[in-house]
Amino acid sequence: MNNLTALVLTYNEEDNIAACLDSLMWVPRVVIVDSLSSDKTEEICLRYNNVKFFERQFDDFASQRNYGLEQIDTEWVLVVDADERITNSLQEEIKKTLSNPEAEGYNIARKNYFLGKWIKYCGWYPDYTLRLFKSVYRYRGLVHESPEIKGEIGKLDNDFIHYTYSNLKEYVDKMNQYTSLDAKKKYQKGKKIGVSYILTRPILEFIKKFFLKKGFLLGVQGLILSLLSSYYQFLKSIKLWELNNIFEDEIK
After folding, report:
1. DSSP assigned state of 49
2. Burial letters 147-161, b for 16+ CB under 10 A, else e
3. Phi and psi torsions of 251, nearest 5°
4. How far apart are CA 122 and CA 208, in angstroms?
5. Residue 246: CB partners within 8 Å, gap ≥ 6?
């Protein structure tokens, strides 16, 4: 596996990073890009002989990942988050795939866990994401960023595990961060919204997640997740409205 490096972004991940790196022991080199953690993240990472640790002030996820890609000299990269785990079956499939690759990149499905349950519904599975690709490619986008691949993209059969949030506070904190980035992205594209959108978009999101995507089959977790998804759309909408109305008024 000398043609593969793993890339992991971290920020105060002392509770997650050891299990993540344990699942990457088979990768010869792991590049960590840390956003100036104040906990024991760096100390834990440096216990692993295959880790190269870099620090960079966070601006956006695409820039962080692209900085990490610049530190990689292998042909392929496997991008993993600190709260994700590579299973043994996925490890073997990756090794087999890279022994004779037929594409420029590969989508991998995530098994997302939330409040102690695998979220099979609510549109959370299979959650395919492009994580294995040639390291010459770069990311674009402020949020939900993805690498721009020129060529064929394949799909692997095995999932990796994603322990999304350890508690609801963490979920809400991340939601606040992502909605700000999402609103900024749409503002930069010139998108404007009105009151009717702010009112209806969250309602439609709940209907989609809880009923159409069968969130009701997950019990309380499905209800909570559907409500939080609705709230995400509400936050994103009012933050975009704020940028278009309050911010623009202030700079005039």
Report:
1. T
2. bebeeeeeebebbbb
3. -90, -5
4. 8
5. none
Question: Which residues are bridge partners to 34 per DSSP?
Answer: 10, 55
d(C-alpha 80, C-alpha 21), whole Å: 10
In the chain, the DSSP E strands lie at 4-10, 29-34, 51-55, 76-79, 84-85, 105-114, 117-118, 127-134, 139-140, 146-147, 153-155, 160-165
Pick the CATH number of 4-164 from 3.100.10.20, 3.40.250.10, 3.40.630.30, 3.90.550.10: 3.90.550.10
This prediction's pTM: 0.86
**Is the bond into 147 cis (omega within 30 degrees of 0)?**
no
DSSP letter for 245, please: I
Name the residue ranges covered by the structural domains of the chain. Answer: 4-164, 168-251
For 91-135, what is each residue's pLDDT tens digit? 999 999 999 999 999 999 999 999 999 999 999 999 999 999 999
